[in-house]
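Sequence, please.
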């Protein structure tokens, strides 16, 4: 007697927002240690960190939808 073959459905992932796939370039290091260069870098780096944080939260939210 032959054993019937069971088929398994291929899992389907939900669509991912294109915003989660963006790779943000990290700001360049400050040109010098002058206060102006350091402050400019701090602003740019803070903006980069904010984008990274938002992207991470987006991935976490996407993952929680699956559970």
């Amino acid at each position: 007697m032959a054993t019937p073959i069971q088929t398994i459905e291929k899992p389907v992932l939900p669509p991912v927002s294109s915003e989660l796939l963006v790779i943000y370039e990290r700001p360049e290091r400050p040109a010098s240690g002058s206060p102006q260069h350091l402050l400019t870098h701090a602003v740019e780096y803070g903006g980069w960190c904010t984008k990274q944080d938002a992207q991470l939260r987006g991935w976490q939210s996407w993952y929680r939808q699956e559970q």
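The first helix runs from residue 35 to 66.
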